[in-house]
Every structure is written in C-alpha cells, then in structure tokens.
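G., the chain you wanted modeled:
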Amino acid sequence: MSFESIWCDLQGVAFEQGYVDAGGIRTRYLMTGAEHDDVLIFLHGFGGHAEAYVRNLEAHGQHFRTYSIDMVGHGYSSKPDVKYDIPVYTQHLSDFLDAIGVESAFISGESLGGWVAGQFAIAYPEKVRKLVLNTMGGATMDLAVLKTVRESTVAAAETPKESMRPRLEWLMADPSRVHDDLVASRLAIYEREDTLRAVKNGTILYEEETRRKRLMDDETCAKIQAPALVLWTTKDPTAKPEVGERIANAIPNGQYVLMNDCGHWPQFEDPATFNKLHIEYLLS
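Predicted structure as tokens:
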C-alpha cells in the first residue's frame, strides 16, 4: 500500500482552515468552495473532528461552500465544562450558521453528527434545506454498543497512545484503512489537556437515561420536515441496515441508500461512492 496521510487527501485542494466565534464557542472549520452560495455543513461523530471529511472536501467544494467543523467539545473548538447533551450541540450549530452569515444550509452528519443534524432539523426547520443522516447515532437502545462507544472513547482520551488505533479501527470495515497519519492527527487532539474532561462530558448521550430522552425513534423522526437521505452501510458496527431503513421510512420525505463493505465511516472508507451518492442527492 502506498503511503497515506491527511495531507495527501488535501494536497492540491484549495481549502481554508479557520476559526469563528459561534455564540462564544471558538469553532474551528475546514472550508472549500468559498465562491458558492449554497452552503453544506459536515458534522463528525463522537470524539471526532473536522478531518473525518478530508476525503470529501474537494468534490463537494465544486458545488457548495463546504464546511467541516469541530463541534463544541471536540477537536480544536472550545470545550466548556458542561454536559454535552443534544441541545448544546444544536445551539452551537445554529450559532455557527449565524456566525458565517447563513440563513439555511445543507446539513450532513455521521454518527453523533447525524443525531445532531436530525435534532437540529426538528428544532430549527427554517435553517435546514436538506439532511443526510450517515450511520446516524441515537436510533437504538443497544446497551452493549453504548458501553463500547463510551468506554473506548474515554480509554482513547485516558491512554491515547495505547488506545487510539483500536478506537479508530473499530470504525472501519477494513481496519487496515486506518493509517498512521490519521492516528497521529487524533493523538494530537487527545493529548491536549482539555480533551479528557470534554470526552467524559460527552458520554452523557451514551448513558441509558439521557439516551432514552433523546432517542431518534419513529415518532421523533416523523417530526423531521426537511428532505432527508439516510445513508447506511452493510458493516456498520453500531446498528444493522434495517435500522437505517426504519429511520428513512419514519421521516416523511426520507430516502434510503446502502453502501457496501463499509463500516461507520463510509465517507472515509469509500469516498468515491459516498461523494457521488451524496452530491447527487443534494443537487437533485
């Protein structure tokens, strides 16, 4: 296998890395396609950061002003000492759109990012043009999966050098897709002194009581007014494809698509297929 790195994914891509003040949260973003009026926001999963979408920025920047952000409590964005319940994330996303001067946008989220995107569409319907819910979190009450996500992410923050690679490999259908530079990029974040506290504050959504309160069940999904593509994979470690299909059927204007031979990060594992499906849906 040839050497892989995050910089190789971005090399030759016209992109900007910057920060904005989103409601008092210093928020980092990667952005491409600055000349486009249509705005797309990518939201990563729990414990993740903007680099989850480095393989998607160039393709989407040809059609949209595309932002991949570090959500509140993640990456290099501010990490206030609060419990990161869903309303904290949705408020931050609303404040980010206000900060960049955008009234409405396409919102695409993976795992926790999909959960936030779905809840954001319910809370702020006027700010959402279309949704993509990519292996969306918050749709099941599988206590074993909750325990795995909670404990593995905390372990990655407590002992990052030993635990980071296994945590990233869990996301993939093929663990060899986790390259050294991806591990190093996340290590640089997890070795920051504010990350462990933030990760522990984020585990509230992976505890049973809060999970039940925020669950994306059929009744909740039915409140999503925006058109939504539910994208699932054949090898997602958090939920079977039938879960994604159920979500799509519950959303009044939902569609469903299944990607083969990918795990929890299809946008990274098979970017060519993801980019094609994703862009065609948003432009349709």
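The beta strands are 15-22, 25-32, 39-43, 65-69, 105-110, 128-134, 228-233, 254-259.

Shout if anything looks off.
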